Amino acid sequence: MTRAVADGRELAGRLRRRDVTVAPAVLNLLESRTDDAREQARALLRAVAPAELGAEAGGHVVGITGPPGVGKSSLLSRLIAEWRAHQRSVAVLAVDPTSRRSGGALLGDRARIDVDPADRDLFIRSNAAGNRLGGLAPATRAGAAALAAAFDVVVIETVGVGQSETEVADVADTVAVIVQPASGDILQFLKAGIMEIPDVLVVTKADLGRIASRAVIDLESALRALGSADTPVLAVSSASPPSGIAELVAALDRHRAGLDLSQRRLQSRRLHALADFVAEYGEHGLRSLGGRREAERWLAEQEPGLDVPTLADALERRAEGA
Amino acid sequence: MTRAVADGRELAGRLRRRDVTVAPAVLNLLESRTDDAREQARALLRAVAPAELGAEAGGHVVGITGPPGVGKSSLLSRLIAEWRAHQRSVAVLAVDPTSRRSGGALLGDRARIDVDPADRDLFIRSNAAGNRLGGLAPATRAGAAALAAAFDVVVIETVGVGQSETEVADVADTVAVIVQPASGDILQFLKAGIMEIPDVLVVTKADLGRIASRAVIDLESALRALGSADTPVLAVSSASPPSGIAELVAALDRHRAGLDLSQRRLQSRRLHALADFVAEYGEHGLRSLGGRREAERWLAEQEPGLDVPTLADALERRAEGA
User: Fold this and answer.
1) pLDDT value at residue B159
2) The pLDDT of residue A109 is above 70
3) Mutate which: A100, A186, A191, A194, vs B, most B CBs within 10 A
4) Among A36, B109, B172, B209, which is disulfide-ready with A5 (CB 3.0 to 4.6 Å)?
5) What pLDDT digit, counting tens, does each position of B263-286 carry?
6) In degrees, to the nearest 5, what angle opens at C-alpha A23 toward C-alphas B194 and A67?
7) Can you list the alpha helix ranges (DSSP code H) found in chain B?
8) Within its chain, how far is the Cα of A128 from the centroid?
9) Average pLDDT over residues A78-104
10) SS3 content of chain A, % helix, strand, coil (to 5)
11) Which residue is closest to B223 within chain A, CA to CA?
12) CA distance B172 to chain A (A)
């Protein structure tokens, strides 16, 4: 039995008309590896590109990352409730590295996102594609960009510390790192420069009182020492009743409002195109472009507004012509 | 000015005669990217391969990893002193991800490895090659394999949690993860299956007494829950006087003695060859091999004892013929 490949342009049209029901079909297309599907996926990405950089610039792509067990899923449930209470549609792409490991079943985190199954304006893909080492697969980058055409908020949730937030930052408009009180490792990673400074730092379990306030103070002083005193550090509690959730949504919105979003998205497209090219053609391909720095320089010179597949094609042609 | 490329076979001969003074020249050759250097590097790796799998199997390749600030460098100083006190020669390849980031200077960890500069049987490369996201570069994998022909112990030190130890495990005979007491993140990573179970778990700051013993008990019960009750958990102190260092060396040696080392090294060579191939040719190359699983299956069918460059060449020829 041959299954028909979805029409990329048609899916893109529906996304741009803010038809959130096409989300599963969109992700399936982007994750499919057949030649036909890859061609349709490129057509889809080309057709959503104007919305991505347009006047309203589509939804807010928010990266949420941090170690397991800090309460990311409980927090996400609260955030979703807050966004939905304000009629904002939400898509969540949760990358679960344990799905590639034997210990996967132990996480069990996923089940803890509380959702109303009848809510059509909330879409959750609880096992978005990751690469072998838990990073973002090209399909997840592409999925976030595409869904942002239809949803008000697109969340990319990843687990990890020290590498994951770098990759998420290449894709998200705003990156929030979630930590729990008394997690000295995070402070060490920040101080050592191994972890990028997030746009928003969130300390969970604010109901713990003094321990959480202590963590906020420690993180704030670390950020000051790193010359990033402006990075907001918020304490939240996902317990009943929750606290700090509306403030967190406000901090995320404030960060986005302060961005030169079209610049950030242009840069994100270039990094996305280069990441796709390197994933596809490796160092051999990169050498044909004169190395990473030269490729980045060349991309920055291209006409602004080019979409990811066009940029990736241009890199490929340049590598072949070299 | 043209600099002559080192002769790979000659360097390999000196390594196999246990001439530890060639270590800098060996690493420089392996990290060099010119065509000539790459050819000589392959010749070197081919020529050390018999020693790697031979009767004595060369030195013990030990991976040491964990978050920054846990005292890895102090511990490494103590370990080096212990190994040297028993006349074992030691090479250390320390991969510093902060060298690729702005915050690099903040780490300052490196200076804390105390060494005797006149000791010829101790070699430290404090900034071994890493890739963009802090993983091991092909040159570091190759360096560890080559130096093991001459040194009794080769240490690969990396910083990180959750991804770094996976990569180190592909290369090292024995992987030790170093944690500090009260580091809840590590426990969460272990339980969530995001972090591979190490061969040896080390809790530093044993001088803290009850806090350190509590950490040992927590980690032991987590390992039991994961079905890995046999994994040793050791408490050490690098303070003056140190404690637990001789026990740690014994645990590392015991782990190696229990390995089917030639099986592990054969598997390591296959993973090394495949990692090199993918770094070089990307997903496009991997698809020509029928995908990762098919490539691993095919590699496992090849004659045992083939060296990394020969396996990588075979993958390349197979991809081209496809």
Assistant:
1) 82
2) no
3) A194
4) A36
5) 888 888 999 999 889 988 998 999
6) 20
7) 8-16, 23-31, 35-53, 72-85, 138-147, 164-169, 184-191, 210-225, 245-258, 261-288, 292-301, 308-321
8) 11
9) 81
10) 55, 15, 30
11) A103
12) 17
B194 → closest Cβ in A97, A183, A185: A97
| Mean pLDDT in residue range A76-105 | 80
User: How far are the Cα atoms of B50, B91, B141, B196 from residue B156, in angstroms, in the given order?
Assistant: 21, 9, 9, 17
Q: Which of residues 38-67 of A touch B (CB under 8 A)?
A: 67
Q: What parts of chain B have a pLDDT lower than 50?
A: 1, 101-111
Residues of A in contact with B183 (CB under 8 A): 183-185
Q: Cα separation of A234 and A226, whole Å?
A: 18
Q: Say if the Cβ atoms of B280 and A282 lie within 8 Å.
A: yes
Say what the pLDDT of residue B293 is.
92
Are the beta carbons of B193 and A163 separated by less than 8 Å? no
What pLDDT does residue B209 have? 84
Q: What is the CA radius of gyration of chain B?
A: 20
- Listing DSSP states for B276-306 in one string gives HHHHHHHHHHHHHTT-HHHHHHHHHHSPTT-
**Two structure tokens written together for B289:** 């091999």
* Phi-psi map region of B71: left, alpha, beta (phi>0 left; psi -120 to 50 alpha): left
Does A182 sit within 8 Å of B185, measured CB to CB? no
Looking at residue B106, its pLDDT comes to 37
What is the predicted ipTM? 0.74
User: What does the domain layout of chain A look like in residue ranges?
Assistant: 58-257, 263-321
- The CATH fold of domain A58-257: Rossmann fold (3.40.50)
Predicted local confidence at residue B102, as pLDDT? 39
What letter would DSSP give residue B71?
S
Residue in B with minimal Cα distance to A68: B188
| Sign of the four-CA dihedral A50, A56, A59, A63 | positive
Question: In chain A, how long is the greatest CA-to-CA distance?
Answer: 62
Q: Which residue has the tokens 């992700």?
A: A27
| Residue B186 touches partner A, C-beta closer than 8 Å | yes
CB B158 within 8 A of CB B177: no
Secondary structure (3-state) at B202: strand
**Residue pairs spanning A and B at CB distance below 8 A:** 150
Find out whether A97 and A132 touch, Cβ atoms under 8 Å. Answer: no
Find all residues with CB under 8 Å of B271, minimum gap 6, and list them.
B170
Q: What is the pLDDT of residue A106?
A: 37
Q: What angle (nearest 5°) sits at the alpha carbon of residue A73, between those of residues A202 and A81?
A: 85
Structure tokens, A250: 């406000």
